[in-house]
Amino acid sequence: MSGFNVSADAVDPEAVPKKKLYTGAEIPGIGLGTFGSDRFTHNEVADSVRGALSVGYRHIDCASVYGNEDRIGQVFKDILAGGLIKRDELWINSKVWNDMHERVEESCRQSLKDLQLDYLDLYLVHWPFPNYHAPGCDITSRSPDAKPYRRENFMDTWRQMESLVDAGLVRHIGTSNMTIPKMQLLLRDCRIRPACNEMELHPHFQQPEFFAYCIDNEIQPIGFCPIGSPTRPDRDKAQSDTVDIQDPVIVRIAQRLNVHPAVVCIKWAVQRGQIPIPFSVYPNEYLSNLRSTVTEPLTDEEMREISKADKNCRLIKGDVFLWKDNQSWEDLWDVDGHITPA
Ligand SMILES: NC(=O)c1ccc[n+]([C@@H]2O[C@H](COP(=O)([O-])OP(=O)(O)OC[C@H]3O[C@@H](n4cnc5c(N)ncnc54)[C@H](OP(=O)(O)O)[C@@H]3O)[C@@H](O)[C@H]2O)c1
User: Which residues are marked as site: Lowers pKa of active site Tyr (predicted)?
Assistant: First the structure.
């Protein structure tokens, strides 16, 4: 598909809520996810980016490991050349993958080339673990290449991230899949603070302490899997996982508003103060997710009820990042408040 028209159904991007970062920059309060996993082709995901921009999205969450930045770049090129949207109206994220922690600038330049952009609005360290696993591999077992988190290695990577800001290649830098102990060390030792932290956030996994820590430190939380990633591949599911869109509280509110429960998850996220980045290739879904930010809000009582529905159910456990035998995935997340020794 080529060409670009503003859809008749479009939401006015100016009406979509925005968040102010500590730098003073404004970031759109909802973005479109672009991880199609093995369920959707790269072209389908790129088409969803084109469609999402045509209905009013201005924030797109990309990553080199998703393997589709070159297709999405073609969309950006067409749209920017058409002049209907200007570069400074877009907010584009990308992320350095785990095998490039020692070559951050090279990774960033490749993403810029693929995305056909001169700069990124936000560049994230995708995971604090520097090991590699191929996308699509069995994520429920340990990778033989797994390496532990080490503060000094992470800071080496962060220094390279800071240099990208100095060089004008990126406007902001941030983190993803962090914990409070790891973030405390980063804030202690960094020269340029992270502007955003991308973290798993949905009604059944609210991370209240880490969320509050980010807000208190002027780090904007961006919430991935905001709908609880209901149709993720079976290999990414554990028996103990719960399903947000089947939660009775979410379902009841959805019935009151006559919307899909997914829309309630997005409304809750925006009203709570995180930036959700829901994925969908279906126009009716990504449009209703965007529209949810400008329609009737949840009541205070509904927000309270959802806050009590938390089940501390982490979906993206990261088992592949375990670096020695007999560890459990909880060790990756510093659950007792201490970083697990390497
Ligand atoms: N930083 C990280 O480590 C990290 C990790 C994971 C994800 N992410 C980012 O977060 C994004 C979102 O995560 P995700 O895709 O795993 O989970 P998600 O957004 O919670 O769930 C996406 C699924 O929800 C369904 N859906 C979306 N909108 C809907 C609607 N209005 N009504 C009904 N169903 C709807 C769709 O299922 P169907 O396709 O079946 O309709 C879609 O595939 C990713 O694309 C990626 O950009 C980042």
Answer: 95
